[in-house]
Amino acid sequence: MINSVSKSNYKQDDLSDYFGAMTVKELRQGMRRGMFIYPFIFIQLLSVIAMSVEFQLGDVEVYSEMTGVLNPALFFESGPFWMVAGVVCILLMPMGGLALMSEEIDDGNHELLLMTPMTRWRVVSGKFFSLWGLCMVTFVSLLPYLIVRYFIGGIDPWRNVAMGLSVVSFSAVMCAGAIGASVFKSYFHRIVMMVLFTFSMMLSWLAPMFSSFMISDACGVFYHLNAVAFTVCYTLIGLAMARSGIRLVVTNYEVKPGVLIIGLLIFAPVFISIFTGMTFGFGGIVGVLGIACIAWNVDMTPKAPSWMAEPRSNVPEEVESR
């Protein structure tokens, strides 16, 4: 009776299998790691300090015509609270992902994982959703401060909604980039790849986002469609870089997938800017989605066509006993 009750309680408290085995494993471990506990406590202390500063300053939000999602300038124009949320959820916590994939690769665990039905995308996405989920748990813990800010007055509701979505989107991109950079062996190479990823992201942001803003003189429908496409694009690029690091076999006629991802990071801003200019600012989203499709398919394992017969098994035939 006691065993049945304990098992039922365990099943109620346990995470659902819907999240995937890799995600559940990483979330269990991540909730105990210092990369979640210390930033979580740190952001609560900083949020209290930021709120007390805002009480003293009064109106802290500066009017901006470009009030929309994924506008980095708004973090400096929306008061100390959003600066604290941005630094912790976009910079500090995602940087913990620089060690995630190396743990699996250095110990050879990725080879054991790929021997199971789990694909490379599931391994990488499990790491991503666990790290991003920890960032979101930290961000959700800040909602009471947002309610207090709203009742104080002088706060634009749409500005705060846009800032919240910006934190969620930027955090997803930076988590994917950190996980992608973690497949490299030394910390120096990881930092270099993270810097390359960040600069590529910033340059790719300029053309489609500014052009869509100039067309409508506001952050309207075109602007936010580009914001969604931009988030999806660079999240996929970061995950594709992580997936390329756990490829077990690369044949002689294949280009190493890591080289292709680095080339994609370098030429993505050029391609997006040219496509945006050729379409007079209207087609930036198409260029961004094109880069996302390339990132999705850049590391596909070659497969034989369906019409080709299977190779014969290389097993010695049984010798008839005389």
Tally of individual domains: 1
Oligomer: single chain
What is the global morphology? globular
Low-pLDDT stretches are: 1-11
Round the Cα radius of gyration to an integer and report it. 23 Å
Strand fraction band? under 5%
Average pLDDT rating: 81
**Which percent range fits the helix content?**
55-70%
What's the number of extended β-strand segments? 0
Question: From the helix content, strand content and strand pairing, which structural class follows?
Answer: mainly alpha
Largest sheet: none
- Alpha-carbon distance between the termini? 63 Å
How many helices?
14
Compressed to H and E, one letter per element, the order equals HHHHHHHHHHHHHH
List keywords for this structure.
322 residues, mainly alpha, 14 helices
Blueprint (SSEs and pairs):
Elements: H1 2-13, H2 21-30, H3 34-57, H4 74-77, H5 80-92, H6 100-106, H7 109-114, H8 120-140, H9 143-152, H10 157-181, H11 187-216, H12 221-244, H13 257-278, H14 284-297
Helix pairs in contact: 2-8, 3-5, 5-8, 5-10, 8-10, 8-12, 10-11, 10-12, 11-12, 11-13, 12-13, 12-14, 13-14
Task: Give structural notes.
With 322 residues, this protein is mostly helical. The protein has one domain. Helices cover 69% and strands 0% of the residues. The chain has 14 helices and no strands. Helix 3 (34-57) runs antiparallel to helix 5, helix 8 runs antiparallel to helix 10 and helix 13 packs antiparallel against helix 14 (284-297). The longest helix has 30 residues, at 187-216. The N and C termini lie far apart (63 Å). The relative contact order is 0.10. Residues 1-11 have low confidence and may be disordered.
